[in-house]
């Protein structure tokens, strides 16, 4: 099937054709938990009562982190992604950084790894579907790369784009998504010290299923903001439209800050299932990073800006 340019499809028709397709896929697979961040998903993650006190965070195992993935370019079956993505060519890899900057450039990933100190950051990752993990990432702050290119005073947002290569990413042949995967941040969110460009986890290079060789990690936002296999970073004046906003703007907003008080239209966000645990734990505002990031949203209505 050929890719239909998103300009030729209204969001509603994508949504409707996708719903139809998902229903068929669910029937075909006989699997209720097939879909992930999708508007047609059956979340299967809905809450029972969360425990009253916060629970300790222990990193998930390497096997859990690399064996349960959302990566729609390969599959909606989280446990199939690792196998299907294994052959992705991740070296050599270049990322273009440009747009409203004084010094646009195409960077070789090997050069970036040498240029910036690779740090370890252990972050919670909370998927909009209601599951979470704790992941020891390796990487460098996005702010360091942005400083290199010198954003101009017109730059207000940062737009990220995933590799578009249907020969390697088979689901990019599906017309039901407006490929390539795109995400965005406000410039101050992108410059925040918690915002990471990850190149590894558990001290090893990122495996393909986790977004090799370069993926974004924004720990206070739902996991879908943390875009994988980045090839382009652009400084722009207008708020970028992400893939999920384009598919279902009533369900997925630009901000996507983790917020237990703002339910997804089809399920509660008040609690989550930590992968590897039984039961559920309460979801924390800004995924537990409120002290660091709440000030970015002073005066904003977080229900409207979901
Ligand atoms: N990036 C791309 N390009 N394609 C995707 O399907 N899925 C997102 C995000 N980044 C996705 C993506 C979602 S929904 C989540 S929850 C996280 O990746 C999952 O990251 P992980 O598989 O490393 O846990």
TrEMBL record:
* UniProt remark on cofactor binding: Binds 1 Mo-molybdopterin (Mo-MPT) cofactor per subunit.
A Pfam family annotated for this chain is: Oxidored_molyb
Q: Quote the catalytic activity from the record.
A: L-methionyl-[protein] + a quinone + H2O = L-methionyl-(R)-S-oxide-[protein] + a quinol; L-methionyl-[protein] + a quinone + H2O = L-methionyl-(S)-S-oxide-[protein] + a quinol
Protein name in UniProt: Protein-methionine-sulfoxide reductase catalytic subunit MsrP
Write down the required cofactor(s). Mo-molybdopterin
- Chain ranges passing through the membrane: none
Q: Which keywords does this chain's UniProt record carry? A: Metal-binding, Molybdenum, Oxidoreductase, Signal
Top-level EC class: oxidoreductase
UniProt binding sites for Mo-molybdopterin = 69, 72-73, 127, 162, 210, 215, 226-228
């Amino acid at each position: 099937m050929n890719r239909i340019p998103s300009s030729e499809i209204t969001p509603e028709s994508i949504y409707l054709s996708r719903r139809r397709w998902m229903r068929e896929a669910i029937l075909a697979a006989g699997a209720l938990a097939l879909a992930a961040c999708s508007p047609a998903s059956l979340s299967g993650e809905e809450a029972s009562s969360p425990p009253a006190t916060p629970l300790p965070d222990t990193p998930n195992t390497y096997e859990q982190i690399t064996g349960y993935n959302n990566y729609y370019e390969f599959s909606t079956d989280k446990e199939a992604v690792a196998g299907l993505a294994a052959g992705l060519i991740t070296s050599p890899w270049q990322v273009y950084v440009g747009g409203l900057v004084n010094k646009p450039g195409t960077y070789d990933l090997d050069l970036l790894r040498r240029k910036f100190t690779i740090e370890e950051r252990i972050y919670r990752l909370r998927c909009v579907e209601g599951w979470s993990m704790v992941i020891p990432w390796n990487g460098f702050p996005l702010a360091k790369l942005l400083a290199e290119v010198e954003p101009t005073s017109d730059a207000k947002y940062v737009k990220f784009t995933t590799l578009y290569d249907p020969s390697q990413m088979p689901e990019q042949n599906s017309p039901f998504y407006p490929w390539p995967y795109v995400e965005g941040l406000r410039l101050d969110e992108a410059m925040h010290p918690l915002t990471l460009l990850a190149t590894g986890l558990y001290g090893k290079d990122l495996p393909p299923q986790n977004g090799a060789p370069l993926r974004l990690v924004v720990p206070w936002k739902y996991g879908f903001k943390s875009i994988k296999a980045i090839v382009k970073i652009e400084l722009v004046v207008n708020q970028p439209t992400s893939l999920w906003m384009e598919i279902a703007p009533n369900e997925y907003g630009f901000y996507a800050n983790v917020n237990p008080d703002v339910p997804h239209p089809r399920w509660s966000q008040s609690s989550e299932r930590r992968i590897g645990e039984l039961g559920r734990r309460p979801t924390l505002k800004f995924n537990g990073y409120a002290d660091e990031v709440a000030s970015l949203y002073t005066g904003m209505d977080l229900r409207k800006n979901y």
